Amino acid sequence: MSRRVVVTGMGAVTPIGLNVKEFWQSVREEKIGFAPITKFDASEYKCHIAAEVKGFEAKNYMDIKAAKRMELFSQYAVAAAKEAIEDSGIDMDSEDPYLVGTAIGSGIGSLQAMEREHEKLLQKGPNRIHPLFVPMMIGNMAAGNVSIQFGLKGKSINSVTACATGTNTIGEAFRAIQYGDADVMVSGGCESSITPLGVSGFTALTALSTVDDPAACSLPFDKNRSGFVMGEGAAVVVLEELEHAKKRGADIYAEVIGYGCSSDAYHITSPEETGAGAARAMTNAISDAGKKPEDIFYINAHGTGTHHNDLFETRAIKLAFGAHAQNLKINSTKSMVGHLLGAAGAIEFVACVKEIQEGFLHRTVGYTTPDDEMDLDYCKEPVEGEFDYALSNSLGFGGHNASILLAKYKE
Description:
The protein is built from 13 helices and 14 strands.
């Protein structure tokens, strides 16, 4: 019999707050993290707006010497993990470290390192490449650095499924605890790809919004949507086997009860047009939890603000829920923080936990104009009232679909 898994700690570094408290307060206040790009001169680029993390200082979270051996995506992960572990109250001196694991993913790793060292290679030759270039650049180093920093010696994994990464890492951590590979998993996603290559690459795909107005650049599900805004940051949660959490008197924020995946097997960037793949991930998660579609009230959608994603995700929801789709509340956290790529599912998981705790569904900020076939309730206004379940969707390039189902914790 599988074991119950609960959430006992959370940490976040986001464009609208450098910790969970700041992030959630900003969500409730409908703050947006969109502003002109400052990380490089974007004046010659088609896209000028991003959701950058502001005011982050690595030295506030870790030893400065350790920070210098990490790229920014890893620094964000370590900072969010530090908050999550402290929030959980886990005392590693009292734990078997081989039963405390790590599952933290990044969709890309460090484009900064690639750009920097490639320029150095061209200008100064191969003998001037930084000796730590490779271990600083590769995406698994977020999990590796968190494991090293906090002495987590259990299963350590890094799912890389593009924009589904954050949901897949938390889902795989959930599975690891369910079936006894670990008692505790520190899990989430991180990303920092607001760089010349990152912005120009996604622009070339016509995925990024080129609207310069921060209030109109990220409009998930709106008829006037024009693409996503690139965000950055990290979110990390502590997942724990229920009896282990109760034994140490931990505060329990929510329970993870279902996880489902599928592949579109269709196209490298576009979701499958009928939504069948994403629908199957949702129904798999609901079935995994022993629930029925009619039990679900709320979905935190992938909701990127691209034409294809929002339309095809809407179709997927209709396929998965049938007539009940009209009763659902659906919102997109990306309307405030942009698209955090490999960290998106993780920060949206944190949002779901807070929404369950407080009985408050944030609105899809900026959503005003319905679009023909997209006729569901996308939370034009906030919704208050208790609800038991939150389903979070993530869809990634390559056809990766992942859904995770949370529940209000009950004995």
